């Protein structure tokens, strides 16, 4: 088969797979299905949607990759957890393979992370309970015990920023915070932007200032502390871009 015909056939299969995937999503919506609910069997989907078995299988695979459905072999296909792992992978790969400016992609991740925390300063300060604040303090203490950029520091840092937005009760913000944090943590080493080990105490102090501002109930001070927390990484990005001759 000539190359053009092969490409056309692939486009046709891709279009059909998307149509079937859209029909499965419409079925889920029409039946008000929730994560964990069991979908009809493959044979039932074929009959309901008027699609071939191969088309249904391809559609299910594409939906599973997005966590819209979950295939449990030997048990069936269920509505997935609807997480943002696919988004995190896409954002990470964008940062690793940016066609124009890798550092700009990384700086964008910093902007988004800071936006979530500074933009929700009033809500975060109002929602953090004494128990949350104590837990944040414990995580800062944990960070101070490990080399900056090391596994222990990284785990505590991720937990800190996850817990910071958790009391907002906004699941989307929580998931996006984790997704962008994971992308940020993956892209940084690729660009040689790993936090220097001698910044451990400085970073711990910045995190501590965030907690102290929240504990005082001062949203303005909290927002300023968040800005100070992200300032060093912005400086490293600017220095790295300058070293490459990029504006």
Features of the shown structure:
Four Helix Bundle (Hemerythrin (Met), subunit A); Arc Repressor Mutant, subunit A; 11 helices; two-stranded antiparallel ribbon; 247 residues; mainly alpha
Topology:
Blueprint: H1 3-30, H2 42-49, H3 53-65, E1 69-72, E2 76-79, H4 85-96, H5 102-119, H6 121-127, H7 130-144, H8 151-165, H9 171-190, H10 200-216, H11 219-243
Antiparallel strand pairs: 1-2
What features would you describe in this structure?
- The chain is mainly α and 247 residues long.
- It has helices spanning 3-30, 42-49, 53-65, 85-96, 102-119, 121-127, 130-144, 151-165, 171-190, 200-216, 219-243, and strands spanning 69-72, 76-79.
- Strands 1-2 form a two-stranded antiparallel sheet.
- Helix 4 runs parallel beside helix 9, helix 5 packs antiparallel against helix 9 (171-190) and helix 10 (200-216) runs antiparallel to helix 11.
- The termini are far apart.
How many DSSP helices?
11
What count of domains describes the coordinates? 2
CATH architecture verdict of the largest domain? Up-down Bundle
Number of strands: 2
| Distance separating the two termini | 49 Å
CATH superfamily of the largest domain: GntR ligand-binding domain-like
**Average of per-residue pLDDT values:** 83
* Biggest β-sheet description: 2 strands, antiparallel
Low-confidence stretches: 3-11
- The radius of gyration over CA amounts to 23 Å
* Side-by-side strand order of the widest sheet: 1-2
The helix/strand order is HHHEEHHHHHHHH
CATH fold name of the largest domain, please?
A: Four Helix Bundle (Hemerythrin (Met), subunit A)
CATH class of the largest domain: Mainly Alpha
Strand content: under 5%
From the helix content, strand content and strand pairing, which structural class follows?
Answer: mainly alpha
Percentage of helical residues? over 70%
């Amino acid at each position: 088969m000539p190359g053009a015909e092969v490409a056309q056939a692939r486009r046709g299969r891709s279009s059909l797979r998307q149509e079937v995937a859209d029909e499965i999503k419409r079925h889920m919506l029409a039946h008000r299905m929730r994560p964990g609910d069991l979908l009809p069997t493959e044979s039932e989907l074929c009959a309901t949607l008027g699609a071939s078995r191969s088309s249904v299988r391809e559609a299910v695979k594409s939906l599973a990759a997005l966590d819209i459905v979950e295939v449990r072999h030997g048990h069936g296909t269920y509505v997935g957890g609807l997480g943002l792992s696919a988004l995190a992978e896409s954002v990470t790969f964008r940062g690793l393979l940016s066609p124009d400016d890798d550092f700009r992609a990384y700086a964008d991740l910093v902007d988004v992370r800071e936006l979530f925390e500074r933009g929700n300063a009033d809500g975060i300060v109002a929602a953090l309970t004494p128990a949350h604040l104590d837990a944040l303090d414990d995580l800062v203490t944990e960070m101070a015990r490990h080399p900056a950029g090391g596994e222990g520091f990284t785990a505590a840092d991720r937990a800190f920023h996850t817990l910071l937005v958790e009391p907002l009760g906004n699941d989307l913000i929580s998931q996006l915070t984790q997704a962008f944090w994971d992308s940020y943590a993956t892209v940084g080493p690729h660009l040689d932007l790993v936090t220097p080990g001698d910044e451990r105490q400085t970073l711990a102090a910045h995190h501590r200032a965030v907690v102290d501002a929240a504990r005082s109930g001062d949203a303005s001070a909290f927002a300023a502390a968040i800005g100070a927390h992200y300032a060093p990484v912005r400086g490293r990005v600017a220095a790295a871009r300058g070293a490459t001759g990029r504006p």
